[in-house]
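Limitations

Structures in this collection are predictions, not experimental determinations, and the ligand pose is part of the prediction. Treat each record accordingly. The example that follows, with pyridoxal-5'-phosphate as the small molecule, is included so readers can see exactly what is and is not provided: the inputs are given verbatim, and the output is the predicted complex.
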Amino acid sequence: MEFQQSDLLKSLPKQFFASLVQKVGRYTEQGADVINLGQGNPDQPTPGHIVDKLKETAENPLNHKYSPFRGMRSFKEAAAEFYKREYGVHLDPEDEIAILFGGKAGLVEIPQCLLNPGETILVPDPGYPDYWSGVELARAKMVTMPLREENGFLPDYTELKKEVLSEAKLMFLNYPNNPTGAIADENFFDNTIRLAKENEICVVHDFAYGAIGFDGKHPYSFLQAEGAKDVGIEIYTLSKTYNMAGWRVGFAAGNKSVIAAINLLQDHMYVSLFGAVQEAAAEALLGSQQCVSELNALYESRRNVLVEGLKNIGWNITAPKGSFFAWLKVPETFTSVEFADFLLDKAHIAVAPGVGFGEFGEGYVRVGLLTSEDRLREAVSRIESLGIFKKHIDNDL
Ligand SMILES: Cc1ncc(COP(=O)(O)O)c(C=O)c1O
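Predicted complex:
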């Protein structure tokens, strides 16, 4: 028998990047040396002291039982301590923190926690496609907020119509931003909080790249802004900060009523994470943070290699200020899909076409800084040999 999928499943957004992954796979199977800059999977291992903690705590029979439904107190205390140390933000471990199976789980759950079918969610465009999945699973209505280069890839709230603002129940934001590499300042968060208060909108700030800021800037947490906890939450994941993407661990922090809603949904869906993962995650948050500084320096150095290399061959691009992505404007004669195909076919370089992140991503491609400097240099030289960019010659003479 073949069973039909539910209407809900059928309504889920198609995975835009699946065809790119397949195409890269075909080239690789044929033996091509593809430089894959299209994905967002950290390339470095989890720091040793965190793995050691997992090994040690995996032996404890207490961790072989069901863990507390709402997560271990010690992990929530570690998360609170982390926010106090890094951002000067005070959080109550019990009421203001909910443990998550990675950031994605929280982002997808939130619309179901707070919205009834047909209610409106504001989503950045371009943006991380998993927000759309959460919107669809809640049968909510998505209204996009364009992120334009001239506004530093921040949404311009004056563009939102009054009716939309009065209907909106939830807003997703994400800085440092995937895919644009932009960062937000305090002023932007203050404006967001004002808007959210006036219109009773819950703000969900996705802080997945919170640890990755360049040029000496430590990215702002939304929770640092005054009144943030009144209007929303921040979702923090250990995936990027500590190269723990495979571990599936993160947490939501902030507004008590939202945290209670997440906990309630999760009571019905899961038992919490493996205790040893929670203990190792606490070690990550409380132990030496040298690994985080080193990782940040590694991404910054890769960014510099890529940006300087591309500028030298005549591709006039803007350097990302945070995250591990660069958002590159494609030559005007190409769409983002055509340019991504062109780079893959002619230079065996995979990049993510911007339109896959939303309509306002058209005209750009996203490049990950998740491979060595040598491979990035090799990518630059392959692009140079395509001869589509004209070298900028400094004519100071
Ligand atoms: C913007 C953004 N948010 C959230 C996530 C989810 O991360 P995780 O589910 O691994 O915590 C990612 C991962 O790529 C991301 O890019």
